[in-house]
Structure formats: C-alpha cells, structure tokens
Amino acid sequence: MFLNYRNQENVLNRYFILMLVAVLSLAPFIYMVLVSFMSLGEATNIRILLPSELRFENYAKAWQQARFSNYFFNSVLVTLSTLIGQLVICSLAGYAFAVIRFRGHQIVFMLVLITLMVPESVLISPLYQIILGRIVPIGFLNAFSIMILCSSFLILIYVMICLLNNWLQQNLNPGIISIGIGILLAGVLVISSLNSAETKEFLTEEFADRNWLNTFTVMVVPFLGNAYSIFLFRQFFMQMPGELWQAARIDGASHFQYFTRVVVPLNLPAFAIIGLLSFIWSWNSFMWPRLTQIDQTGHFTLPVGIDAFTRAQGVELHLLMAAATITVLPVLALYMGSLKLFMNSASRIGIKS
Q: Which pLDDT score is estimated for 353?
C-alpha cells in the first residue's frame, strides 16, 4: 500500500515537472502567435493577452512590406543546397570512419570531434579571411566549390536511382543515368546563361574572381562538412553487421557500391533525422548570413530579413511577430511531421547490433 502510494506520487511529480517544462517552452511561441493577430495598440499593451479579433492581414502586410517572398525563396535555396551537400559529404565521411579501417582513422576522427568544442564565434574571423581570398585564392575556392556541389548532386541522383531499383525491382544503370542527367542539366544551364541576362548575371556574381561576400555560395559551402552530422552518421553505420560488407566484397562490390546500394537503403531513418537537423540549422542561421550579406541586394534569408524589416519599419511588434511566425512555421511543420521518426532514430544512436 505504502509502495503504491509512493509510486503514484513519483508519477504525479514527473508529470508535473514535464507539464511545467512544456509550458515554459511553449509560452514564447504562444505569445508570438497571439501578438501576430493583434493591432499595434494591443501588441504594445502588456495588459492585453488575447487579440480582440484575428487579424490575418498582419501576415499579408508583413509578407509584402518585408519582401518576404524573396527572402523565403533565398532561404529555400540556401537550405536545400546545404541539406543535399551536407547529407552527401557527411554520410560519406561517416561511412569512412565507421567501415574503412585506414591508418590513423581514430586520430582523424578525434580531430573532427575536437572541432565541436570550438565556439562558432571563434571561427568567424578565420572564415572571413578565407572568403575574402586572403588565405586561399578565390579562383581555387570557386573551382573547389563547383566540384563539391556538382559531385554531391550527381551522387544524390546515383543514390536515388539505386533506391528506385530497390523499390521497383528494376535494374537501371545508376551511373549512366546520373551522368546523363548531369550533362543535360549542365547543357540547360549553359544555354540559359547565353540566352538569359539574369542567369548570366547570377552566375557571374556567384563565381566571379573576387570575394564571396554577398553571394549564396558563402552561406552554403562553409557548412557542408558538419562534425556533428559526421558523428551521427558514424554511429548509425557502426550498427551494421560487418558480415554485410564481407558478403558484398565477395560479390565484387566496391565501397561506393556497398554504400549506395546497401548502407543507404538500410539507414534511411538516419538520413531523415540528420536531414531534419541540417534543415533546422540552415533555416534558422542568422549570424553568418548577416555578416556576409552586407549590400542588401536581395540575398537575405528569412532570419536576416526579419532583422532588416525591424530596422526599416521600426518596432511594429504585431508585424514583427507575424514575420517571425512565418519563419517558424516551415520548421515546425517539418518537425511535427517527422517527430515519430526523430524519436525512433535518436533512440538507436550508439546501439550496436
């Protein structure tokens, strides 16, 4: 009897603590949504907690006045480019640390983990010197970036074809198809740059032989290699039995074939969870885009756009909260849609079968 009473009391205490944490966590978000529907007078009155009516026009006004359609497109472009590149590069690096036993791989992996201990603010100064071309020539950086981005895109197509082969029980040649699609897209890009002044101007601005300030490239390339993503991929890949690789070697498979045709299909939850984290990091990034986009020519992402909107319009709290809600909603929707997958994948990290 006494033990049952103590158990019930412990359960109630746990639920009380969880509810308290949930309220404290949700309070800023609820306040942001409520204020986004208020008038300016209601928003600045601290005694008013609920809007007198739902003013959806606040969202339309914030969207139009802050050029949010442009900022939204920029955020989607930067986030998707970072997401694709980071998934490809970090998964390959994680696979190398988990499966390939090269000399000194543990030391290299420890060096990668050490970068997690370095604050982001400490890296800003050396990164800034690099993007200005004072350490590495800009021409080399442009060539390296184009190679990395194109390789990541081709590998993504290759993996997608392999997944289609598994799902549809087909035997398509992923190498030929990915190269063909790459050549086709390169041709379309060349023709478009010759016929369209906007495309030519865009490519010139991105890869001109100067510095990387006020470009999309500077918001993507420095973050393609993420130590935390590499660590997570390694933990997931280490759960796979070594017998799978031995069997693949007997069948004549290379590491790349084993990675694209066996490892990736068996670890799709890992790619989903790390892709979600990468999306959130890139979508919410503020400090680096704010420091590298200094001419306000239309390269601002949503978080930087909110800052610019506040500086231009002053403290219009209701419109500011409407703009912040617009920024948060895509991440919130994506997270809520993949919450179950997130929890299941996170619980598997580090558990070796």
A: 46
DSSP string, 67-110: THHHHHHHHHHHHHHHHHHHHHHHHHHHHHHHH---TTHHHHHH
Instruction: Give the number of other Cβ atoms within 10 Å of residue 37's Cβ.
Output: 22
Helix axes 317-337, 57-65, angle to 10 degrees: 100
Q: CB under 8 Å to 322, separation ≥6 — which residues?
A: 36, 58, 59, 61, 62
**Contacts of residue 147, Cβ cutoff 8 Å, sequence gap at least 6:** none
Tell me how crowded residue 229 is: count the other CB atoms within 10 A of its CB: 23
Domains annotated for the chain, with CATH where assigned, are: 61-132+224-353 (1.10.3720.10), 137-210 (no CATH)
The contacts found for 111-120 with CB under 8 angstroms, 24 or more apart, are 112/227, 112/230, 112/231, 113/227, 113/231, 115/227, 116/227, 116/228, 116/231, 120/287
What is the C-alpha to C-alpha distance for residues 281 and 87, in angstroms, rounded to an integer? 13
Nearest to 94, CA basis, from 248, 253, 219, 273: 273
pLDDT for 233: 93
Which pTM value belongs to this model?
Answer: 0.85
pLDDT, one tens digit per residue, over 137-154 is 888 888 888 888 889 899
Distance CA 243, CA 249 (A): 10
Out of 49-53, 87-91, 113-117, 237-241, least confident range: 49-53
Residue 203's CB is within 10 A of a number of other CB atoms, namely 14
pLDDT at 6: 62
Q: What is the mean pLDDT of residues 86-101?
A: 91
